[in-house]
Amino acid sequence: MSDDECHELGNLDDLQDGGMQVFEDIGDYGIVVCRVNGELFGLEDNCSHADTPLSEGRLRGHQLTCPLHGTSFDVRTGEHSGPPAYEGVPCFKILVEDGVAVAFPQEDSAKGDEGASGGLGDFFQTR
Ligand code: FES
C-alpha cells in the first residue's frame, strides 16, 4: 500500500461513541468517520444513490442512514441495505497509532460499480 492511499486524521479521542466527524479534504467527497462501541469506521461521505452527504444522516449502531431517501450503509463494510441505493459506498479502515488516527481504503469494501465515476475508488486508482 502506498502512502498516497492513507490519510492522517489526527487525534479522535474527543469523538464520542455514536458520533461522526467529517474530513472534507479526502477524495472527491470526503469521508465520515464514525465511532461505534469504541471502534472507528470510515465511509465515503456520499450516498451512492444521489450524491448526498451521509454525515447528515443518522447513525444507529453500525448503520448510517442517508438523510434523503433512507438507505442505510453498514459502516464496517460500506454495504447498502437496499433500494433506492443500488450499491454500497467505499469504506475505510481506521487505525490509531500513538493517538493519531489514520484512514486506509478497505480493499474489500462494497464500493460502487466499476463503471461509476467520481468516487474514491477512481481517486485511488488514478494515483
Ligand atoms: S440519496 Fe441516499 S438513498 Fe437517495
Please provide a brief summary of the model.
With 127 residues, this protein is mainly beta.
Describe this structure in words.
- With 127 residues, this protein is mainly β.
- The protein has one domain: Rieske [2Fe-2S] iron-sulphur domain (Rieske Iron-sulfur Protein, 3-layer Sandwich).
- It is built from one helix and nine strands; from the N terminus they run βββββββββα.
- The strands form two sheets. A six-stranded antiparallel sheet has the order 1-9-8-4-3-2, with no helix packed on it. It has a three-stranded antiparallel sheet with strand order 5-6-7, with no helix packed on it.
- 38% of the residues are buried.
- Residues 113-127 have low confidence and may be disordered.
- The chain binds FE2/S2 (inorganic) cluster.
- FE2/S2 (inorganic) cluster binds at residues 47, 49-50, 52, 66, 68-69, 71, 84-85.
Helix residue percentage = under 10%
* C-alpha geometry: globular
Query: Measured on Cα atoms, how large is the radius of gyration?
Result: 13 Å
Please state how the strands of the largest beta sheet are arranged side by side: 1-9-8-4-3-2
The CATH superfamily name is Rieske [2Fe-2S] iron-sulphur domain
Q: Which stretches of 5+ consecutive residues score pLDDT under 50?
A: 113-127
Name the CATH class: Mainly Beta
Largest sheet: 6 strands, antiparallel
Taken in chain order, the helices and strands follow as EEEEEEEEEH
Termini separation comes to 12 Å
